[in-house]
Write a structure and sequence with these properties.
homodimer; about 425 residues; alpha+beta; Rossmann fold; Dna Ligase, domain 1; 3 domains; six-stranded mixed sheet
Chain lengths: ~425, ~425
Amino acid sequence: MVPHLVTALDGPLLDLEQRVLEATPAIERWLRLEWMEHTPPFYCGVDLRNAGFKLAPVDTNLFPSGFNHLAPDVMPLAVQAAMAAIEKICPDAKNLLVIPERHAGAGRQSFYLENMVRLAAIMRQAGLNVRFGALDDELREPLSLTAADGQKIVIEPLERSQRRLGLKNFDPCSILLNNDLSLGTPQVLEDLHEQYLLPPLHAGWSTRRKSNHFNCYDDVAKRFSKMLDIDPWMINPYHASVSGVYFETREGEAQLAESVDAVLRKIARKYREYGIEDAPYVVIKSDSGTYGMGVTIVRDASEVAGLNRRERSRMAVGKDGVEIRNVIVQEGVQTFEHVEDAVAEPVVYMIDRYVVGGFYRVHGARTNEDNLNAPGMKFVPLPFEHAALPDVHAKPGAAPPNRFYLYGVVARLALLAASIELEKTDPEAIQV
Amino acid sequence: MVPHLVTALDGPLLDLEQRVLEATPAIERWLRLEWMEHTPPFYCGVDLRNAGFKLAPVDTNLFPSGFNHLAPDVMPLAVQAAMAAIEKICPDAKNLLVIPERHAGAGRQSFYLENMVRLAAIMRQAGLNVRFGALDDELREPLSLTAADGQKIVIEPLERSQRRLGLKNFDPCSILLNNDLSLGTPQVLEDLHEQYLLPPLHAGWSTRRKSNHFNCYDDVAKRFSKMLDIDPWMINPYHASVSGVYFETREGEAQLAESVDAVLRKIARKYREYGIEDAPYVVIKSDSGTYGMGVTIVRDASEVAGLNRRERSRMAVGKDGVEIRNVIVQEGVQTFEHVEDAVAEPVVYMIDRYVVGGFYRVHGARTNEDNLNAPGMKFVPLPFEHAALPDVHAKPGAAPPNRFYLYGVVARLALLAASIELEKTDPEAIQV
């Protein structure tokens, strides 16, 4: 299945692609030096939006759950990256405990199980014995589950000792979280000082804030753009954060409208600068939400007060029913990518500091301004040819590997921002 | 171009494949721990022979020159491996000087230039500015060359200062040798203590000995086989080394015949043990030769004395006209692999400790016992599907990725042997 991709690349992005291709050795060296200073999270998925005139990360997921959407032939890249990561974290690692989402056992989520199967295969091939442990006190016996593709996995009850977490007859060196901890940090994961928790607990959505991430990204984008001599706006969406917003009671509404207005004005100024005739819009998102929940689009500050009851209650709660109190107002970046007739946005997957593949999130019933992370979305693996070596001699915009390389660079900037974000928000580092 | 592969896999090798697949996490961990102790050479190509009843490395090349024979879609694996290698060797590396073979400029070798183009693309993508410097005192001006595929490269005169080697306006951090130094170590490469020479000078064929390599491999194979509980002979060819052999004058002939006889007897004993009905044979090779030169096959010790004049003079000199005085007598391992009607042997390429791809060396005019590294050979890239994740549930012997994984494991054992060999023969370490 090779997706037929249509990208309306305008002048500015073609220039950027060309500049990135020509500066490849300098960019890779710049990143290499950054990784000397900052440790990437174990894995990461970045949602990008390519508007033709700008290319920006709009969401950085530290618990990627779509490894099954990567093309099978990129798996060796994932294995190699995992090997490099393990070697740095715990070279004599033997056993890996993977903690999936709570809903792993639910029937409608059997596609999530395919992700678990794929993740286990990668980690096994990288030299680890992999078993799954449930964040679920009610699970008393191992539970055998069947993924949509027929493969089976077993999820087992956790066994916690004073200092270590494991399973029956299974003492892991590292624990890989594929559960984003939206509901808070479970006690069973606290005070595990002898084992590596990947990513660390404060990467979970109960503590993580998108606004922290994008503040760090602002700085990364600025430094990268300076090196490349480009306008950072080309790779960075404007954003503002607003706290104390209670959609149900309309508290904080005026402050939110003010922020929306400020961001819209900044976008409008840039649109004028670049002669872009589209109408600016912003996306209001939960500052710690995920799964595409708690997201709404507005084109004018007055729309904030005009949200109807249904829209307000949709914005009031995120994943797992968690109340939304803080939001981020993010510049809306249209996507001009299509897979056949459907609007598409690229998602880039990384393990350690390496891009290992990607896929398109595709939605047939949404527009190019919409959030595509919504029921009805489909996934189309990026064919491996897209990950081939860039061709610096190709006509600008014409070679899929060149475009994918650009995506990989911007995704790694978001990964770098996540690394710095996790350093800055590390509760242990703050105590020191 | 997907090669049609035919492999007559017998019982013993199917068992080995199955055992290796099942023990993958343990094997990868074992290798990971070995790489804590030993540093792999920068790159390496290993020739394997798969006889159906055994799978063995027969040659380990530390100056691989066939990167152009790898499938284009494995390039991202090569880039990722090169990134990991550079990060360890010289994280702030900016410039890389590549030193090609002397014959790079010769017309008939324009395929070698394709290798250089490919290698440069990999290293550039890994974040280095790459230029080529000629080991040729007569080159006074940059020389522009065109590879068989139309791509151009420029080879420049070397500029040596007291402490550093470079090119005009180009001061590299590392120097990558793709020249095997068969003619001896050129003075221009001596005493470069501020720059990294990859691989080190003593990896060159003017000092390296195959017998050292296979002695180290004996030990690696023994340790690996113990872990996996297999007969080390399954993955290791018998060998003996003989020095002071002058084929032209027939000096050392009796000693050589004796070694041939001893190795043949050992093979015959194993053939009886496993019920193999083929006739044992040995390959006599220059102990420091390459390019498939200085190689002959004998089935009986009496054949040594019976070599005719032409055969003796063919054995007397190796690559670049270097006189052969030391030989290795290696157990002949037939290859039961075919690509269409031609006999084939797999070659596995590695960068740092990672398998990055492979190809088949194919020869339509040779038998399954012959050396295939001879004029008339062709190269068929191993399609990328072969490098996909192994399928532990597949019928034994039926899945190309499973077979390729086995090849990758054995090739990495040879790589490990090369690492230990280079440690043991390091002249600086010996001085200490």
